[in-house]
Amino acid sequence: MTGDRHDAAGPARRIRREKMTAWYGRNALWVVIGGFLLLMAVFFLIALTNSPGGGEPCPADKVCNFVR
User: Fold this and answer.
1) SS (H, E, C) the chain
2) 31, 24 in Cβ contact below 8 A?
3) Sign of dihedral through CA atoms 50, 52, 54, 55?
4) What values do phi and psi take at 66, rounded to 5?
5) How would you label 6-45 residue by residue, b for 16+ Cβ within 10 Å and e otherwise?
């Protein structure tokens, strides 16, 4: 029956989905750039929290992951 709630909900969902698809289509480059920057920020934070030695100087008698 026309005017039923189910009939009204279907086109509204389709329009919303079409709007989102159109937005991603226009802004795909910015979505990719933003995702890449977010990934780099996560890697940077992981590298900061996992720094070896905690900033302490290397003792003279120990080789600390590099050749002297």
Assistant:
1) CCCCHHHHHHHHHHHHHHHHHHHHHHCHHHHHHHHHHHHHHHHHHHHHHCCHHHHCCCCCCCCCCCCC
2) yes
3) negative
4) -155, 160
5) eeeeeeeeeeeeeeeeeeeeeeeeeeeeeeeeeeeeeeee
**What is the pTM (predicted TM-score) of this model?**
0.51
Helices 28-49 & 5-26 angle (0-180, nearest 10): 70
CB 50 within 8 A of CB 37: no
Q: Dump pLDDT digits (tens) for 18-46.
A: 888 888 888 999 999 999 999 999 999 98
Separation of alpha carbons 62 and 54, rounded Å? 16
